C-alpha cells in the first residue's frame, strides 16, 4: 500500500479538490504535511469541512477506484458488484461487457483483475482521507469538546467505519469466530504498511468508531443528506452489530433500529413511492413521487442530491441500471432480476410490478422501481435513453432497511412475535394479504425476513450484506448467462474477493 499517496490525497482534499484517475502511478513532489494541516485546523477547524466534503464526493465521483473503467463510480458501483455476487441481479447481455467478470465470478478467484482491486482502492482511499482529518484533530484518541470539531470528528470516524465495514464484507467470508485475518488496519496517516488484522480486530474498530461518532454527532444538524448525521451512524452501527451477530449484538441491533424507527423522523415508503403506476389508456405516469430518484424521499436517511455540477453521465449508477438514461442498460447490457427470485414475489405484491419484461424475452427489467425523473409515460421511445447528464439522485440508506434488520434481529433472538409484527408493518404497504406471516416462526420466519429483504432492497446493494450475515446459499436462476441453476454458499470462493495483487506486491508486511 502506498501510504504517501493517501497522505497527499488527504492534503489535496483539504484544499477542496480530488486525486486523478492515474493516482497509483503518480509521485507528487509537493504536499502539505499532517502537521501543517493540523496547525491550520487549530486556527480554523471549519477548514476541515472541505476534507469532509471530499470524502462524500468520493462516494459518487468516477475513477475513485483508481481506474478509467465505466464501472468505477463510487459506492453505487460496488452496490452492483454485491448484487451480482449475490446473484439476485442478472447481467442480461454482453454487448459492452461491464460487470461481465463479476457475473462470471472471475475477480473473486483472480487477484490480478481490476474488479478485485477497485473496491480495495476505493475504501482505503476514504480511510486514509478520513485519517487525515482525524490526525488534524489530534488523532484517533484525542477527545473533542467543541461542537465544530466534534461534528467533523464524528463524520470522519463514521466514514472510516463505513469503509472498513464494506471491506470486511467484500474481503472476508463473514465474522465466523473472529480469528480470520482479513485486512490491514490504519488509524492514522503516519504508520508504515501494516499486516492483516483479524475480523475481530476490524469489527472492534468499526464499532468503536461508530459508537464515538454517535456521541459526537448528537445535536449535529446537517445541511444535506449526503452528510452523515447521528441516524446514519446508528444505522451503520446496527449493520455492524448484525454482521457480528452475537446475542448481545442482536439486542443492540434491536435497540438501535427501534430508535431509528421511532425517533429519526423518516418513514416507510408507501405504495405510490415504491412502484411507478400508469394510466391504462394513455400510459401516462400517475405518481411522480416514484422512481427512487429524489433525495427528498421521506424514507431516505442517507443519499446524495446529484445535479449538473456533479458532472455524471455515461459512467454512473443510472447509466448502468436505467432504461431511461443514455448509457449501457439502454444500449444493450440490462441489469434484471433473477427469475427464481421473481417467481417468489407474491402476485398481489405491488413490488412485482417494479419489474417488466420489456422486450418479451423473459428478462424482467426494474423499470418501474428505478427510473429517471424526466419519464412521463409507461414506455415511450422518445424517453427511453433520454437522460444524458445525470440529475437524478443516489440512495445509500433508507428506513425500510431498519424495519427488516429489526425483524431479523428479533427472529434470531427467538422473539417471533415482535419480529412478525415488524415485518407485517413493512408488508402492509406492499402485499394485499400478508396474513400468512402469522403462521411463520423459527427458521421459517427468518427465511421469510431474508426473502423480503431480497425483494424490498433489490438493486440497492444491501442483499450481499444480508447473504453474508445470514450465512445463506444462493442458487442462480435459469436466466443467468453464467452458472444457471448452480448454488453457492456464503463462504464459497465465488462470493469473496481475494487480497488484490497490487496490495500483495506493495505491502511486504501483509503476512507478518
From TrEMBL:
It is found in: Cell outer membrane. Keywords: Cell outer membrane, Membrane, Signal. GO terms for cellular component: cell outer membrane. Residues 364-512 form the RagB/SusD domain. The keyword tRNA processing does not apply. Residues 22-220 form the SusD-like N-terminal domain. InterPro entries: SusD-like_N, SusD_RagB_dom, TPR-like_helical_dom_sf. Belongs to the SusD family. This is SusD family protein. It comes from Ohtaekwangia koreensis. The lineage of its organism: Bacteria, Pseudomonadati, Bacteroidota, Cytophagia, Cytophagales.
Amino acid at each position: 500500500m502506498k501510504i504517501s499517496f493517501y497522505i497527499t490525497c488527504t492534503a489535496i482534499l483539504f484544499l477542496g479538490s480530488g486525486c486523478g484517475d492515474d493516482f497509483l502511478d503518480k509521485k507528487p513532489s509537493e504536499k502539505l504535511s499532517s502537521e501543517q494541516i493540523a496547525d491550520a485546523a487549530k486556527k480554523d477547524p471549519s477548514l476541515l469541512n472541505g476534507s469532509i466534503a471530499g470524502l462524500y464526493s468520493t462516494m459518487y465521483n468516477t475513477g475513485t477506484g483508481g481506474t478509467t473503467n465505466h464501472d468505477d463510480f463510487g459506492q453505487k458501483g460496488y452496490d452492483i458488484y454485491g448484487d451480482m455476487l449475490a446473484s439476485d441481479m442478472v447481467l442480461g447481455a454482453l454487448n459492452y461487457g461491464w460487470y461481465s467478470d463479476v457475473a462470471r465470478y472471475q475477480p473473486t478467484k483472480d487477484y490480478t483483475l481490476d474488479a478485485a482491486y477497485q473496491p480495495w482502492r476505493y475504501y482505503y482511499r476514504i480511510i486514509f482521507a478520513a485519517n487525515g482529518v482525524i490526525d488534524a484533530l489530534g488523532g484517533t484518541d484525542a477527545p473533542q469538546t467543541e461542537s465544530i470539531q466534534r461534528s467533523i470528528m464524528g463524520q470522519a470516524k463514521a466514514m472510516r467505519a463505513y469503509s472498513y465495514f464494506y471491506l470486511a464484507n467484500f474481503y472476508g467470508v463473514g465474522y465466523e469466530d473472529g480469528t480470520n485475518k482479513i485486512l490491514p488496519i490504519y488509524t492514522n496517516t503516519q504508520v508504515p504498511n501494516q499486516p492483516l488484522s483479524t475480523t475481530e480486530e476490524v469489527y472492534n474498530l468499526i464499532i468503536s468508531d461508530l459508537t464515538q461518532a454517535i456521541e459526537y454527532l448528537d445535536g449535529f444538524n446537517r445541511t444535506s443528506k449526503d452528510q452523515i448525521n447521528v441516524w446514519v451512524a446508528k444505522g451503520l452501527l446496527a449493520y455492524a452489530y448484525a454482521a457480528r451477530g452475537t446475542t448481545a449484538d442482536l439486542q443492540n441491533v434491536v435497540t438501535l433500529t427501534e430508535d431509528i424507527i421511532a425517533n429519526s423522523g423518516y418513514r416507510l415508503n408507501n405504495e405510490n413511492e415504491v412502484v411507478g403506476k400508469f394510466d391504462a389508456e394513455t400510459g401516462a405516469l400517475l405518481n411522480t413521487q416514484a422512481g427512487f430518484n429524489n433525495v427528498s424521499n421521506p424514507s431516505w436517511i442517507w443519499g446524495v442530491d446529484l445535479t449538473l455540477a456533479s458532472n455524471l453521465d455515461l459512467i454512473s449508477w443510472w447509466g448502468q441500471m436505467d432504461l431511461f438514461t443514455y448509457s449501457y442498460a439502454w444500449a444493450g447490457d440490462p441489469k434484471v432480476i433473477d427469475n427464481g427470485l421473481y417467481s417468489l414475489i407474491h402476485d398481489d405484491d405491488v413490488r412485482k410490478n417494479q419489474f417488466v419484461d420489456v422486450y418479451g424475452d423473459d428478462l424482467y427489467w426494474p423499470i418501474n422501481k428505478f427510473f429517471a425523473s424526466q419519464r412521463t409515460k409507461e414506455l415511450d421511445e422518445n424517453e427511453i435513453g433520454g437522460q444524458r447528464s445525470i440529475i437524478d439522485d443516489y440512495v445509500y440508506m433508507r428506513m425500510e432497511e431498519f424495519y427488516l434488520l429489526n425483524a431479523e434481529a428479533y427472529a434470531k433472538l427467538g422473539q417471533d412475535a415482535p419480529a412478525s409484527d415488524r415485518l407485517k408493518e413493512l408488508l402492509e404497504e406492499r402485499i394485499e394479504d400478508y396474513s400468512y406471516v402469522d403462521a411463520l416462526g423459527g427458521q421459517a420466519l427468518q427465511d421469510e425476513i431474508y426473502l423480503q429483504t431480497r425483494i424490498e432492497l433489490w438493486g440497492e446493494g444491501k442483499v450481499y450484506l444480508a447473504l453474508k450475515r445470514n450465512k445463506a446459499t444462493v442458487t442462480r436462476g435459469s436466466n443467468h448467462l453464467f452458472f444457471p441453476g448452480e448454488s453457492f454458499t456464503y463462504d464459497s470462493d465465488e462470493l469473496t474477493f481475494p487480497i488484490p495483487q497490487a496490495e500483495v506486491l506493495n505491502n511486504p508486511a501483509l503476512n507478518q
